[in-house]
Protein: Cytochrome c peroxidase, mitochondrial
Organism: Prymnesium parvum
Amino acid sequence: WHLGALDRRAAVRAGALAIVPFARPLPSFAAQPDYAGAKAALKDLIDKDPEFGPTLLRLAWHSSGTYDKMTKTGGSGQGTIRFTEELKHGGNAGLDKAVARVEPIHAQFPSVSYADLYTLAGVTAIEAAGGPKVGWRAGRVDALSPDAVTPDGRLPDADKGRPRDTANHLRFEVFYRMGFDDREIVALSGAHALGFCHPDASGYSGPWTPTPTTLTNGYYNLLLNLPWTLKEWDGPMQFEDPSGKLMMLPSDIVLIQDNKFRSYVKMYAKDQALFFSDFAAAFQKLEELGCKNLKTVNLA
Ligand code: HEM
């Protein structure tokens, strides 16, 4: 069915343009979600409370760290960590507070999905802590019901008993399941340069480094150079430095007990730039596991 030029003009005059078959689809006037605005609001939240930055980073990681490459389930893509069903998973203790503090930002930018917002919070926190710029792409679509929540047990436990069991857990049950290798496990663990363990969340206590709001390769240097001993207390098994102020989880200490992990710890302890570039690549991979059709957007 083809209209000649004259018929086409007649059709336009008759107001029938929309049914002319060769008319192009009308451009969409729906506003692009304001990702830059959302990022600025997240940055503002962190600037006002720098110790909350690491908690947001942990939120981003736990929202992504449920991915299973075999079944292609889990991952950050559907924003499911906001559901009580997922927040009550053992590993997510304390993250209800982080979800609650992101809520007003979602209310301010409702067209940015929760899934995008949580991962954006992670990369914003890394940058705010002086870390590398991590690539971030938009387009995650929130699940509307908790049906997409994956079973509890996909996030790492900090202690599986013997060091070899903890190492096997990190490798086979958690990080290889997501598609990471040993080098990436050690690079990602460097995030523990930031933040604290909270007795009312995980039960563990204290910061890993003396500068918990600044990302450096200090975590690796402390692991290698301090004499870590068992902390004597009523809480779960953790290690402390001679001052008693810094801590390591059994899953951190495993990174110097296992020879393969240890070689990467040494590598990053010597070279902060290499840590930053490996960390940025691994974190972008993490936050995009299982996500489809992501697109680069302007964040400036
Ligand atoms: C290797 C396995 C890991 C284990 C067993 C582990 C375990 C933990 C535990 C028990 C806490 C304390 C939570 C609390 O009490 O508030 C914590 C905090 C944290 N984790 Fe991990 N983690 C692991 C890997 C990672 C990764 C891959 C990242 C990010 C790339 C990460 C980032 C953080 C951050 C930033 C905090 C501090 C949170 C805060 O200050 O509120 N962790 N982790």
Observations:
- The chain has a mean pLDDT of 93.
